[in-house]
Amino acid sequence: MPQTPTPTERCPVPPPGSRGIDEILAAARARLRRLDPEQAHVAHRRGALLVDIRPAGQRAAHGTVPGALAVERNVLEWRFDPRCPTRLPQAVDYDVPVVILCQEGYTSSLAAAALRDLGLRRATDVVGGFAAWRIAGLPTLGPTPPLRPSPVTPPVTAGRAPR
């Protein structure tokens, strides 16, 4: 999460009517009944869609939750809007329970509020995100370590193969 400027740093004067991210986040969360990791796990086991909106690199670096749908944030609304032709098969109506998961529980709040704006009344998110899920000892897979060349595998060489 980006650092807040210190009191000695100058911030530009915001335009009239604009809101800072802290205000936007608070307004989003005021509309949600956020779930702690254990509640989210129970909801998922009872049929709620657990949706991991983290980028692929973050999922590879930190791990995933078994059974979670990976839908990156930049396409979330299109995949869950029941009116949209590019929606997921699971986006059947506006009463689908959707639990959004990000790394630390900030972006997921904004994403869940966006789904609420689409009419998905049961959209919410996980307090603390994937980090809190893992700390709670709930099921995870990974992380997936980067592929490294095996010490027993000869390196690939350019040019002709030796005879």
Note down, in words, how this protein is organized:
- With 163 residues, the protein is of the alpha/beta class.
- It has a domain of 102 residues: 3-Layer(aba) Sandwich (Oxidized Rhodanese, domain 1), CATH 3.40.250.
- It has six helices and four strands.
- The chain has a four-stranded parallel sheet with strand order 2-1-3-4.
- Helix 5 links the parallel strand 3 and strand 4.
- Helix 1 crosses helix 5.
- The radius of gyration is 20 Å and the shape is globular.
- It starts with 20 loop residues before the first helix and ends in a 28-residue tail after the last helix.
- The mean pLDDT is 89.
- One of its GO terms (molecular function) is transferase activity.
- Keywords: Transferase.
- It comes from Micromonospora eburnea.
- InterPro entries: Rhodanese-like_dom, Rhodanese-like_dom_sf.
Which features characterize this protein?
single chain; 163 residues; alpha/beta; Oxidized Rhodanese, domain 1; 4-stranded parallel beta sheet; 6 helices; 31% helix; 8% strand; globular
Enumerate how many helices there are, as a single number.
Answer: 6
What is the CA-CA span between the terminal residues?
A: 56 Å
**Biggest β-sheet description:** 4 strands, parallel
CATH class wording of the domain at 34-135? Alpha Beta
Helix content: 25-40%
Rg from Cα: 20 Å
Order of helices and strands: HHEHEHEHEH
What's the CATH superfamily of the domain at 34-135, by name?
A: Rhodanese-like domain
Structural class by sheet pairing and helices: alpha/beta
Please give the CATH architecture of the domain at 34-135.
3-Layer(aba) Sandwich
In which order are the strands of the major sheet placed?
2-1-3-4
**In CATH terms, what is the fold-level topology of the domain at 34-135?**
Oxidized Rhodanese, domain 1
Please count the beta strands (DSSP E, at least 2 residues each).
Answer: 4
In terms of DSSP E residues, the strand content is: 5-15%
Mean pLDDT: 89
* Broad shape: globular
The low-pLDDT segments are none
